């Protein structure tokens, strides 16, 4: 199992790098190298890289530069996400803290949460039409569900003994909630923020594929229509990278706010 | 205060009451506010849902739509799960395999499965092939990584105990590593199931002529809100059903771990 | 020295660890021990240092830096079924039932199901767990879990039993009870036992012979033969005298 890790680390790092290089070389070989796949089936790595660089300034073929697409997507995703968090976190905390409300709301919530975010796209498009609002609403729902689940279980995991300690010091119910339960639920709430972010971003891509006039999802859907696979792959990579960056920003805040860890 | 000692009966009663109140609010809102002009009331939706089991929507009845979506999902799900577990175990057990595969998994995993839709359509056409590919992607990475983490979480003292009792190397693997990994695999299967269900719905919404995702998007195309809501009910109930079944299987196989209290 | 054969021998054993924060860290220095067949040997010493390492070297989990550990005259190179260990944290397999845990040893060595079941049942009965064969370890109390650990080690029919502070996590009452149980089991099924503890009372209560260890790097500081009749009495004057005497030679610094 745990073999001599330190000594061999460099060797395995080398294997990893070699593995990636071989992978990219094979990709090049079957495209530019030997011409097995044409670029409307699989563009070569060089072409994808060139497109990636050029797309930052070029608006063809979908009417916007890469930056404009990223900006449009971020605007929708973050708008829906932030409202979802602002409503979802208190709702989750409230549901977990109040028994009656919990028993009352939870079954309804359990039903709603099994509906994937994308499915709401049709409802929202029919209600408010294609545009910023419909997508933001879909993302709002997707993000809120994840937020409620995690802040709910965060509060539910509060150690009874911590609450007792609070009670022996004469804390009121409100004090117990704000000074004991919420701080102890903070790591879970951040997990919720992370999960919600992932689900907001995924749902956004889906919503843009389905109903949109700009954004990264729209870009790859358009490019697919005219067999510009290089743009499709660039779009996928940018989607992945943006998602990863958003998530690491969140982790940064998590490290700042969550101190002490869980006991 | 946090929940302590409330009987199951009362919980169920409150739950049913909660759903009932939710339906009432929905009903009243559609009857007496302007929401009624765009949104059908719950009676229409649920009676429509059950009626669809007899009278087909499109060319198929509800049962068939659901079964078609499930089949589309379960075949590649099984393949993705199987290969995910295999690769995950391989990577967990052999550093060499870890070094080769891990960079690819780390690079490809951040791409949401849904973002593969355009590519998969070009590679595999509009038929089942592209949907299978998407579901496979939605399951494979998650399950491979959770399995990998499971193999790495093996308790060193248990390995010692097994060695002390005379277990050989392959027996360490089958009797210690695999059982430790099973709960991890199940949590991966659970997450992957949710994401596979979301992906199949999205894929069907983008291109298909049957299935629950099609129900919704078809409703959107013809401006039939009732059909959209019927589709959503179908998605919710089926999703609930498959995750409940999965949880049941998990509880049976991982009884020793006493998880999910 | 008694006339009985030497089963385990430590010959000039040194053991050092390389810890990043401490650098080279010597835990055992020039250790010489002879363990005779069927004796109940207690290694007693305060603090965290060295005792478990000695046991781990007999078990074959760790190798000496210098010198050698012999079992029946052959150097110990790897863990093996002839040296059974009972772990402080039980190390039971949580996914196996009591029966599954106890029969694990014979099972991996290819003993037929019927035979190993019979053998396992005998040891389950011996430790007093009949009726719990199909329970999972999480359902058992700490004392019962450690009984399973003892039965599991016994079921492999090892030459020597290694017990690493097996009762360290138990509450005082259960601990007394388990000490009696262990004495009973040992008298019923004689084995060579090496028992590690940091509790003087436990040491005097159980041992044929006590080796008092010094602090790091550890070695034998004093040796006592205890030939009080069993079952022993914690308040017997001779018991208390031995207890005081041993207490006086122990390093109380940490």
Polypeptide structure, described:
The complex is a heterotrimer of chains A (263), B (261) and C (254). By secondary structure, chain A is mostly helical. Chain A folds into two domains: 1-37; 48-257, MetI-like (MetI-like fold), CATH 1.10.3720.10. Chain A has ten helices and no strands. The model of chain A has no long low-confidence stretch (mean pLDDT 85). By secondary structure, chain B is mostly helical. Chain B has two domains: 7-39; 40-257, MetI-like fold (Orthogonal Bundle). Helices cover 77% and strands 0% of the residues of chain B. Chain B is built from ten helices and no strands. Chain B is globular. The model of chain B has no long low-confidence stretch (mean pLDDT 87). By secondary structure, chain C is an alpha/beta fold. Chain C has two domains: 1-82 and 162-254, Rossmann fold, CATH 3.40.50.300; 93-157, no CATH class. Chain C is built from eight helices and ten strands. In chain C, the strands form two sheets. In chain C, strands 6-7-8-3-9-10 form a six-stranded mixed sheet, sandwiched between helices. In chain C, strands 2-1-4-5 form a four-stranded antiparallel sheet, covered by helices on one side. Chain C starts with 5 loop residues before the first strand and ends in a 5-residue tail after the last helix. In chain C, 41% of the residues are buried. Chains in contact: A-B, B-C.
CATH architectural category of the largest domain in chain C: 3-Layer(aba) Sandwich
Integer-rounded radius of gyration of chain B: 23 Å
Radius of gyration of chain C: 18 Å
Which percent range describes the beta-strand content of chain C? Answer: 25-35%
Assembly type: heterotrimer
Outline of chain C: globular
Can you count the beta strands of chain C? 10
Count of DSSP-assigned helices of chain C: 8
From the N-terminal CA to the C-terminal CA of chain B, the straight-line distance is 19 Å
């Amino acid at each position: 199992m745990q073999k001599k890790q330190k000594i061999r680390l460099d060797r395995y790092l080398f294997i990893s790098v070699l593995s990636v290089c071989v992978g990219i070389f094979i990709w090049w070989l079957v495209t530019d190298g030997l011409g097995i796949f044409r670029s409307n089936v699989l563009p070569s790595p060089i072409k994808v890289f060139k497109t990636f660089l050029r797309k930052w300034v070029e608006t063809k073929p979908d009417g916007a530069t890469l930056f404009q697409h990223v900006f449009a997507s971020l605007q929708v995703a973050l708008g829906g996400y932030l409202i979802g968090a602002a409503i979802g976190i208190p709702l989750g905390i409230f549901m977990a803290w109040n028994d009656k409300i919990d028993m009352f709301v939870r079954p309804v919530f359990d039903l709603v949460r099994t509906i994937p975010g994308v499915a709401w796209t049709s409802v929202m498009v029919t209600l408010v039409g294609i545009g910023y609002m419909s997508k933001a609403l879909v993302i709002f729902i997707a993000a809120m569900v994840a937020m409620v689940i995690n802040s709910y279980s965060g509060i539910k995991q509060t150690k009874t003994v911590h609450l007792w300690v609070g009670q022996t010091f004469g804390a009121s119910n409100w004090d117990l909630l704000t000074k004991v339960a919420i701080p102890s639920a903070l790591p879970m709430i951040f997990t919720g923020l992370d999960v919600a972010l992932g689900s907001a971003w995924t749902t956004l891509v889906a919503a843009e594929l389905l109903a949109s006039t700009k954004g990264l999802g729209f870009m790859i859907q358009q490019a697919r229509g005219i067999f510009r696979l290089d743009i499709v792959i660039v779009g996928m990579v940018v989607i992945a990278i943006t998602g990863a960056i958003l998530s690491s920003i969140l982790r940064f805040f998590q490290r700042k706010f969550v101190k002490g860890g869980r006991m | 205060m946090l929940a302590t000692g409330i009987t199951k009966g009362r919980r169920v009663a409150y739950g049913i009451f909660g759903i009932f109140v939710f339906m009432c609010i929905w009903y009243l809102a559609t009857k007496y506010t302007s929401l009624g002009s765009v949104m059908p009331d719950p009676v229409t939706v649920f009676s429509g849902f059950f009626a669809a089991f007899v009278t087909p929507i499109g060319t198929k009845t509800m049962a068939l739509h659901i079964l078609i979506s499930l089949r589309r999902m379960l075949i590649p799900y099984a393949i993705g799960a199987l290969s995910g577990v295999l690769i995950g175990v391989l990577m967990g057990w052999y550093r060499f395999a870890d070094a080769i595969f891990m960079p690819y998994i780390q690079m490809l995993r951040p791409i949401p499965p849904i973002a593969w839709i355009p590519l998969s359509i070009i590679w595999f056409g509009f038929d089942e092939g592209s949907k299978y590919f998407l579901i496979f992607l939605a399951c494979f990475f998650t399950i491979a990584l959770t399995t990998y983490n499971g193999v790495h979480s093996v308790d060193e003292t248990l390995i010692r105990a097994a060695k002390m009792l005379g277990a050989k190397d392959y027996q360490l693997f089958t009797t210690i590593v695999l059982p430790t990994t099973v709960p991890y695999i199940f949590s991966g299967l659970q997450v992957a199931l949710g994401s596979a269900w979301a992906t199949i719905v999205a894929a069907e919404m983008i291109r298909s002529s049957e299935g629950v995702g099609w129900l919704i998007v078809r409703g959107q195309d013809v401006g039939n809100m009732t059909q959209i809501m019927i589709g959503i009910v179908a998605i919710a109930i089926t999703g609930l059903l498959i995750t409940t079944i999965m949880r049941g299987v998990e509880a049976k196989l991982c009884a020793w771990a006493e998880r999910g209290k | 020295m008694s006339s009985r054969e030497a089963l385990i021998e430590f010959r000039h054993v040194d053991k050092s660890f390389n810890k990043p924060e401490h650098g080279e860290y010597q835990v055992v220095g020039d250790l010489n021990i002879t363990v005779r067949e069927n004796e109940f040997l207690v290694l007693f010493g305060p603090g965290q240092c060295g005792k478990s390492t000695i046991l781990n070297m007999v078990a074959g989990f760790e190798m000496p830096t210098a010198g050698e550990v012999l079992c029946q005259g052959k150097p110990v190179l790897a863990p093996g079924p002839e040296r059974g260990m009972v772990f402080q944290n039980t190390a039971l397999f949580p996914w196996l039932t009591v029966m599954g845990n106890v029969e694990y040893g014979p099972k991996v060595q290819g003993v037929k199901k019927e035979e190993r079941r019979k053998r396992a049942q005998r040891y389950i009965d011996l430790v007093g767990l009949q009726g719990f064969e199909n329970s999972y370890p999480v359902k058992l109390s700490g004392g019962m879990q450690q009984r399973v650990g003892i039965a599991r080690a016994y079921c492999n029919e090892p030459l020597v039993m290694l017990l690493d502070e097996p009762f360290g996590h138990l509450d005082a009452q259960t601990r007394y009870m388990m000490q009696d149980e262990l004495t009973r089991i040992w008298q019923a099924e004689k084995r060579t036992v090496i028992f590690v503890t940091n509790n003087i009372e436990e040491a005097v209560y159980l041992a044929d012979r006590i080796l008092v260890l010094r602090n790091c790097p550890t070695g034998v500081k004093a040796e006592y033969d205890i030939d009080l009749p069993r079952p022993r009495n914690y308040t017997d004057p001779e018991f208390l005298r031995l207890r005081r005497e041993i207490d006086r030679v122990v390093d109380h610094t940490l």
